[in-house]
Specification:
The protein is 7% helix and 61% strand. It contains two helices and 15 strands. The N terminus is likely disordered.
Length: 266
């Protein structure tokens, strides 16, 4: 029977990776929409997001799911501007004959916002750390891990935006009986404005596990809608995804990423 270790690892990789926020500028409507998915815009955010995987490689009739509670807060510290973001997942992981659901590992990163000299190009880089807060062995790694997060987002064109989110982390402490963590995730961000707040998106997360050499490369194509209310900017989206290349068992063959993001202008 195929091992279920890889299903847990890849689900957590998606959970710790930055997922695009929906943060709006405060001036004209065109600039607002152009920044609608800028993960580095300086607004308080609260996101409810879900990654459903309908099929896993090497496993029969198996699915997994991760619900992400995410928040971001811009801060000034050490003489510069930072964006601090925290994620707490609730994971449903398959085990032989059943599934296990529970809180996953808590992740936080702080991206230092570098002045690029271009007001329509955002760039941030900084440390991240993951704590072994999982309620069950299957829903977390059992390890303390640390690494880096790097984000770039270009919103010069009001009709088309692009960028990426890149993370890497490796374990340095924790349960000695659990497998070591050393993985990377790369998330291309492609956003096309369709008018009246609607946009098309492609943001699937590519993963690589340096411990096992397993990898997964999904592609996504989804639809979102940005809505402005009196108290917040609301962004609702759904994005079906399909893997075009993978190696290893327990990796998503297809899935759906969906969510609702709230942005609170200062």
């Amino acid at each position: 029977m195929a091992s279920f270790r890889h299903a847990t690892t890849i689900t957590l990789a998606a959970g710790i990776c930055l997922s695009p926020g929906s943060l709006l500028a405060q001036d004209d409507a065109g600039a607002n929409l152009a920044q609608a998915n800028n993960p580095l815009a300086a607004f308080n955010t609260l996101n409810f997001q879900n990654q459903y995987n309908g099929s896993l490689t090497g496993l029969d009739d198996t699915t997994s799911n991760s619900f992400f509670l995410r928040g971001a807060l811009p801060v000034s510290a050490f003489g510069g501007d930072w964006l601090v973001r925290a994620t707490l997942p609730v994971n449903k992981i398959p085990v032989p004959g059943e599934s296990v659901t529970g809180i996953g590992d808590f992740n936080v990163f702080a991206a230092y916002l570098i002045d690029t000299g271009n007001p329509t190009l955002s760039f941030g880089i900084g440390p991240q750390i993951t704590a072994p807060t999982a309620a069950e062995d299957e829903t977390g790694s059992g390890k303390w891990s640390a690494g880096l997060a790097n984000v770039l987002f270009n919103f010069k064109n009001p009709n088309f935006q692009w960028g990426y989110l890149l993370t890497w982390q490796a374990s340095f402490a924790g349960d000695e009986d659990r497998a070591d963590v050393n993985n990377a995730a790369f998330q291309p961000l492609v956003i096309a404005q369709l008018g009246k707040g609607w946009y098309a998106r492609s943001t699937a997360i590519w993963t690589y596990d340096f411990e096992t050499d397993n990898y997964n490369v999904p592609l996504g194509l989804g639809l979102g809608k940005v809505i402005k209310t009196d108290r917040a900017i609301v962004n609702v989206f759904v994005e079906p995804q399909y893997s075009v290349a993978s190696s290893g068992d327990g990796l998503p063959e297809w899935g759906v990423f969906a969510g609702v993001n709230f942005q609170f202008p200062k």
